[in-house]
């Protein structure tokens, strides 16, 4: 039993240690893309006041995750010009489409859905 506990603790330390070491610009950009995709999908499901209220906890969770990712990016600092060029080459097109879709959903929910403005405050409240 003690041996199993020791092995479990060692594995946990490896995973936790590796997670912190992997905070690169690319990893964090992928995190942010995942958050944007999730947020867009949640917003697409918002059709009326009831679905807006139901989506609020999900939006708050996503917004907090975005906030944490933004903090990690800030802590990491700016990428080098080479890194920035590589990231742009890899992600610019997909990220542009995703941001357009996300922005469209934000505008739709805020303008056309009763209770939508209240829902969108969750994104504003989570700003770093």
Topology:
Elements: H1 2-21, H2 25-44, H3 49-76, H4 81-112, H5 116-125
Helix pairs in contact: 2-3, 2-4, 3-5, 4-5
Provide mean pLDDT, rounded.
83
Shape category: elongated
**Main β-sheet description:** none
pLDDT under 50 segments (min length 5)? 1-21
Total of domains: 1
What structural class do you assign from the helix and strand content? mainly alpha
Strand-residue proportion? under 5%
What is the C-alpha radius of gyration, as a whole number of Å? 18 Å
How far do the termini sit from each other? 44 Å
Number-wise, the strands total 0
Taken in chain order, the helices and strands follow as HHHHH
Number of helical elements: 5
Residues in helix, %: over 70%
How would you summarize this macromolecular structure in one to three sentences?
The chain is mostly helical and 128 residues long. Helices cover 86% and strands 0% of the residues. The protein is elongated, with a radius of gyration of 18 Å.
Describe this structure in words.
By secondary structure, this protein is mainly α. It has one domain.
List keywords for this structure.
5 helices; 86% helix; mainly alpha; 128 residues
């Amino acid at each position: 039993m003690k041996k199993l506990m020791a092995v479990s603790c060692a594995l946990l330390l490896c995973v936790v240690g590796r997670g912190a070491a992997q905070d690169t610009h690319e990893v964090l950009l992928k995190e942010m893309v995942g958050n944007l995709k999730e947020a867009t999908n949640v917003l697409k499901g918002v059709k009326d006041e009831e679905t807006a209220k139901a989506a609020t906890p999900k939006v708050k969770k996503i917004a907090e995750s975005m906030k944490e990712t933004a903090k990690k990016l800030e802590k990491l600092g700016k990428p080098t010009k080479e890194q920035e060029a590589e990231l742009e080459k890899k992600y610019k097109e997909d990220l542009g489409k995703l941001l357009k879709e996300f922005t469209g959903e934000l505008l739709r929910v805020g303008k056309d859905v009763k209770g939508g403005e209240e829902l969108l405050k969750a994104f504003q409240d989570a700003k770093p």
